[in-house]
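Thread: Newbie trying to understand structure tokens

Hi all, I'm a second-year student working on a class project, and my supervisor (Dr. K.) asked me to get a predicted structure for one chain before our next meeting. I've only ever worked with sequences, so writing a 3D structure as a token string is new to me. If someone could post the tokens and maybe explain what I'm looking at, I'd be very grateful. Here's the chain:
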Amino acid sequence: MFGIHKKLRLVTDLSLWRSWRKLSRQKFLRWGSLFGLMLIVSVACSQPAAQDPDPIVSSGNRLTIGTTSKARTLDPADAYEVFAGNLLYNLGEGLYRYEIGTDELQPQLATAMPTISDDRLTYRIPLREGVFFHDGTPFNAEAMAFSLRRFMENGGPPSFLLTDIVESIEPTGEYELTIRLQRPFAGFSDLLAFSGLAAVSPEAYEIGAGAFSPSTFVGTGPYQLTRYDGGDTVRLDTFEDYWGSPAVNEGIDIQVYSSSANLYNAFRTGAIDVATQSLEPDQLQALERAAENGDWQSLTGPGNVVSYLSLNVQDEHLSKPQVRQALAAMIDRNVLRDRVFQQQAEPLYSLIPTIFEVSQPVFEQNRPNQAEIEALLTEAGYSPDNPVPLTLWYRSNVASNVLAATTLRAMITRDYGNWVQFNLDSVESATAYQNLDKGIYPMFMLDWYGDFYDPDNYIHPFIACEQGSVEAGCERGASHSQGSFYYSDRANQLVEQSRQETDPARRQEVFAQIQTLIAEDVPFIPLWQNNASVFAQGSVEGVQLQPTQQFPFWTLSKS
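---
Reply by user tm_fold:
Sure, no problem. This is what the structure looks like when written as tokens:
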């Protein structure tokens, strides 16, 4: 869930990151957004763009959705891009999903929430009867166990989500599944709602390292895949033997556009029913203004992509906590919101986005003023005669990073030019991802999209460290992979405590302590949180903007 593209088209490029990174535990960091702001360099809406194929013409109660995102693969054991995840969300089903419009977990192919053993290691899950896969194969516990084992054993990018946590998966009845964990994890039930953990037909897939089926999908969902030509066009037809309430439409056609300008124009002229991911800020603003006049519908809400600076705490200058604290306080996030994103993103003051109640604006609370910032730099050994040299690296092919980095330099140079020698440098994404954990970059601008809907997914992948010390830094683990190398015994203890705590109030307090610690030690600086947007023609009903960022197609219809 929740960067996506491989092409260097001024978009967030999660596919490159996921393809290149070979991490120990936190295998593949996730960048990007389902509905988010991918393109930032302002391009006039009327600017000529590459010619796309003629759009799909949907008749009757079929709907056409336009996007600029492509799915590299539809194999749930291999798919780790957001667009592919959303297709799997509509084509397939897992044990659990979130109730539409809420963050409440509910059974899907399960019939009840898990029965958890006293040691919180064993999950017994009753399964639904009378379910069939798209190829007619009956669903049962053997099929669900096959699907989850395949996810783990085929070795795709997201496999670590289970292999790091799960010890065994066994059918303990025709319609009962038992999962044994390596250690307790409070967010495990939420993890089971990850779209890649969809049940797949044992007759259509096989288990084996690298044994993927990228162009097909055979699951149990309300739609079945009937066309997928490399991702440019996707056709979903309703599944006649679906066990649950059928889709209220006759099917979905998805048209992938080569540019946001083409997507914008296709929606504006009525060639498509729904536009999602991704549009530029000026295009978003134009569509929102027209929606206020009743031309079409606009739904906007807080997204789940966080953008941040990863600070290398082993760097000569950034190893001093006073410098990291001063740098964090120098950044005016409102300027980024207004000048870079034209108010299409929100200032972020915690690594945990505001979609979670546990999020606290710790980088805004007790923020040092200018005199206190200068005192911090003085304490670290710097002065106007000896300014601290800092270099911010960013991905040259991600337009939001280019503009944000330039704005940050202008902002800090204007206010603290006597104290900070602020430099910029850039590198193409693939190179950055290969070198991020080598300690090459003193600080790097990055984005993060969570795998599953739990605040742990914005903490553990950042500050957890399996091996290291305060002196040597993190030598293996999440912060090493992020290029921060932050190591803290206290942070590790709190992360483990948050993962094992089942009482919501106590878990919230642990997350509060973690966020406070991050604001004090500053291994990362949160910058902004994307807004999620989707646009629909006035004749479309049932458009839902989910807190989890998933986009249900089965609720859409034409009036």
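A couple of things are worth pointing out once you decode it. The first helix runs from residue 14 to 20. The chain has a mean pLDDT of 89. Feel free to ask follow-ups in this thread.
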